[in-house]
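Teaching assistant here, posting this on the class forum so everyone can see the example we discussed in section. The complex has two components, and the goal was to see what a joint structure prediction looks like when all of them are supplied at once.
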Amino acid sequence: MGIFKAENIVKNYANHRALDNVSIEIPENTVYGLLGPNGAGKTTFIRIINQITAPDSGKLYFKGRELKPEDIHSIGYLPEERGLYKKMKVGEQAVYLARLKGLSKHDAMKKLKYWFEKFEITAWWDKKVEELSKGMAQKVQFIVTILHEPELLIFDEPFSGFDPINANLLKREILELRDRGATVIFSTHNMGSVEEVCDHITLINKSKNILSGEINDVKNRFKTDEYKFLLKSKVEDLSFLPANEYKIIDTKDLRHDCQEILIKSLEPKGKNQLIKLMSGHSEIISFNELIPSMNDIFINVVEKSNKN
Amino acid sequence: MKSKILLVLSREYSSRVKKKSFILMTILAPILFAGFFVFVGWMSAKKDTTEKTIAVIDDTNLFQSSLTDTDILKYEFIKDKSVDDIKSTFEKDNYYAVLYISKSVTDGSNGVIMYSTKKTSLSVQSSIERVIEKRLFNDKLNAQGIDKNLIEAAKTNINIRTIEWGEEGQEKESSSEVATALAFGCGFLIFMFVLMYGVMVMRGIIEEKSSRIVEVIVSSVKPFQLMMGKIIGIALVGLTQFAIWIALTLILVVGAKAIFMPELKMNPDQAVVAQNIMEHNSQMSADATTMMASANNMGEMQQILESLYNINWGLIIFAFFFFFIGGYLLYAAIFAIVGAAVDNETDTQQFMFPIMIPLYVGFYAMFNVVQNPDTAMADWFSIIPFTSPIVMLGRIPFGVPVWQLVLSMVLLVITFIGATWFAGRIYRTGILMYGKKPSYKELWKWFKY
């Protein structure tokens, strides 16, 4: 049972359909990657989850029942277009935003104190936002997003504007939040970070959900059964591999008589047989199954869907 | 949900009231205002009081008895000398001017010439003119054998009292001067406040858009709540400022008057004139003249006071706040649309123009209405919601039929509710739109989403 479920969501704008019959189920306690090219409809979908806009049709469920207006208190949202009141003091503003999410002033102060200390930014409390750098402001925004301990967190491009050190800090926090029981929706273009943090993904292209699933399943689905051997000594004759079962894609001679061979298995007979065959002719230094990166899958799937 | 509007509202209110510019403006404006009044009062009270000696060459020998010395003006009658003679010793003798009265003065207006090395003051000039005119007037009457008393007796000072008949036939003292001033003041204040605070709503929304905080906030509050919180919060800022202004202005004006103008003095020019008049009214005792004059003044003052007392203050104050709040809510909603439509203030021009037109039409109509409160134009503009807040206030001190007032108020309420609903629909889409400035057609599309 997912914490959040969207069924057949349709959203039309004046001249285009932003979401076309999109269904997504987000399992509890996971990091869920929401991927897709610019203008695919990700932001619209996120705004629908946050009840900023309403879908034209379709149903939304939160924790097994229909989504209610009060549920925004259980959701934390860090939008891509984010900012703070420039003229307002950091602490005052954080309290205000926390209270809008339903926290009492007292609770807000207590929790803010904890997080400000954790992020080592207590000294900023009385500073105006305009005095902060962009990265500093992003930290404050992150704290405000998670302060009311929402069960569902939505981060839209959370790492933009962060330096690698702070991005890493953020990544750790996101994973920690998941480990403590929260569910995270994570929207990004950065496929590297998807592989690092996501458990599940959905790929939206041209208003449609074109790919959904557990990240390893998705990767397995896009496996090409290609294997790479690094051999200690060169094998001149590869005819011991039956041509109807294996296809040699590439061979490359390396220094010290080493050789790299790329083989595609035509019949899924398993890796072990291939290794057995190969090991009779040369010493194997390394063996890899070529698993496509999320980046490759993204490009591959999106281009294919654009052609149709 | 209600408490969220309250949260937004209190942030909007306190962040503005705590601003340095607000505090400065709120305190400085009445000081400048009061300062202006005091300055004007001081200027008119403190005219030139230096003694001036004027050499008079009177060819007619008629005016020595009339042109008598006053506190400021001293006359020195010089015989057997021409203007040119005096010219050479002018500086040395320290004359202010040389007055030459030729014989032709009795039959034309060009018989008097004043020579000086500088421009002579208008008040000196006119007080001399009056003395000569009076003297000639009396002499000519005598020449015709007409009794001066007859003429004085024939003069009547008219000051129209206006009395309004009420519904039940009771009589009320009224003053159109007082009503005009009041009408104009109220109409102007509403115009100023609606414009000032309407623009403040627009700026606030643009600030939220351009700082990109708006999406964070609408994930916690409904856009409509955010908009209403802002509009109401700023209205309270306006009312606060208004209350402080009234209090401070009263304190300052009263205080300044007490310090700078302990008593109302007649200014020197008036004194000169009064003196001269007295002297030539030999038949009438000086005492009688002053008594009559002061009686007249008293009558007028009393009339003004009485008409002030008779003004329906309850209605005016009620109408002022009703139309101020109504007009503000209507225009604030429209300004909110503009704020939601654009990303930065430079893009507002295109949309500001159509808003300013009805505001200015109302403002100029109000000018006309306070002078002619009973025209069809006055009726129309005070009922149409976009101009009614300004124009109706211009009419109320003169009395407005109850049905017109009620119709105007009902229409205003309906219109601002409609405008708020309309603005809310555009607002919730507009605040999340960045990039190019939308056209009116796009605004319409947003409305329909």
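For the discussion questions: The first strand of chain A starts at residue 2 and ends at 12. DSSP finds nine helices and 14 strands in chain A. Think about how each of these relates to the inputs above.
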